[in-house]
Amino acid sequence: MTAPVFRFAPSPNGRLHLGHALSALKNFEMARETGGRLLLRIEDIDLGRARPEFEQAIYEDLDWLGITWEEPVRRQSEHFSDYEAALDRLKVAGLVYRSTATRKEVADEIAAREAGTGKAWPRDPDGAPLYPFGSSDSSADDVPSAWRLDMRAAIDRIGQDFSWTETGEGPHGETGEVTAKPDAWGDVLVARKDVPTSYHLSVVVDDALEGVTHVVRGRDLFWSTSVHRLLQTLLGLPAPVYHHHRLILDEDGRKLSKSRRDTSLSELRAAGATPADIRRLVGL
Ligand code: GLU
């Protein structure tokens, strides 16, 4: 039997905080307990926000926590051609369309529909309004544009319910075999205008290319797994086992954010915290 493969996949657009520490430590420990491997992936497709000093700080923070990972580290910005190849397959399959509406056009359309129906426009599991336009726009091929998945067509293509194996827990205690509900996300972005990929697309391509068998991450990404399983099924990629863990909340019960300095690992370290303190703070 081949060894399980885990990965920690932070985005270098801010300092790591206690929530990241919990994720990284869980991945590290689960890999160790199962005789598995731990990979580190830098998810830096957001070229406007990713910064080398944040990437450097990720290595320092993980090192300080006593976490070790396999080299080489995969940096997503160096693999755009892999994501583009997957995007091309979705294009050939007729499952994606160009998304050219501006933020303002989207906001105006939603406001108009809400005014027209007197009902709130549906929102995705993250609370963002669903994209209100369909695949009507087939404008010139050579214009750079974002791409969206035609959710209806994608679900119809699979033609049956699909699920994932969850060994952690969802927001309402979902565990075991969880039925995916990708339609809750509407026509998700599969490629941004500036890069030929999106979070959803690159994460499934990389998990497959790197042979990841176990995805361990925060519960805030639980329902994203529906989209990941959909893309995996459409692209013929294997399904890892998923484990979503509890989130670390601030005093007001909110999810920690990268812009909050007081819970960043580097600030805590500078204030004299030890790795053992961090483990205690995250409840390990
Ligand atoms: N890069 C994502 C983040 O930092 C995590 C992606 C994942 O674990 O699937 O939130």
UniProtKB/TrEMBL annotation:
Entry keyword ATP-binding: yes
Metal-binding listed as a keyword: yes
Keyword tags: Aminoacyl-tRNA synthetase, ATP-binding, Ligase, Metal-binding, Nucleotide-binding, Protein biosynthesis, Zinc
GO terms assigned for molecular function: ligase activity
Every Glutamyl/glutaminyl-tRNA synthetase class Ib catalytic domain range: 7-276
Pfam family of the protein (one): tRNA-synt_1c
EC number: 6.1.1.-
Top EC class, one word: ligase
UniProt xrefs under NCBIfam families: PRK05710.1-4
Family label: Belongs to the class-I aminoacyl-tRNA synthetase family.
UniProt name for this protein: Glutamyl-Q tRNA(Asp) synthetase
Source species: Rhodobium gokarnense
